[in-house]
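User: I'm writing a tutorial on reading structure tokens. Could you give me a worked example: one chain, its sequence, then its tokens, then a sentence or two explaining what the tokens reveal?
Assistant: Sure. Here is the example chain.
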Amino acid sequence: MKTFASVLWIIFSVLLIVTALIGLFTPFEVFVSFVFFLPFLLIAGGISNIAYYFSFKELNGANLLLMDGILNLIFAFIFIALGIDFASLVTIYVFAFMVAFKGILGISYALELKKTGISSWIYSFIWAILSILIAIIFIAMPSLAGITIGIMISLLVFFFALASLLTFFGVKKVFS
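And here are its predicted structure tokens:
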């Protein structure tokens, strides 16, 4: 590997690790930053999907790209128009809904496991109930949900950076 590219790769990975660690100590700020940039990410994604649509409109299912792009733009403009408080609440409620939905599915899975005679079904059932309780807590206490989402984003960045750093050392051995 070239020295300059190697140094950049390591610097990038280390900076991401440091950023993620800082984020773990400031999770609410991470969440607010995410919600602030969300409309711009949606706009970029929407424009990209619409551009892809025009490149692939002859293919089956290309209309879904157009629909996804238009929906991204609509949500982006709604979030911009109604402000960061609205975007924060929508993000939290969508997250809480996903956790609750996963809990409901978990109860179904646990009951199916019970029917088949698997004795450890109770663990799946308990986790599913906990998921539903967490979703209720997030709806009742949105700031706690924001902090949790901020921690999750920070952990995601940390593990991405760690994987990048480990990949560097793996690639370095391949090209040495």
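What the tokens reveal: The radius of gyration is 21 Å. The mean pLDDT is 91.
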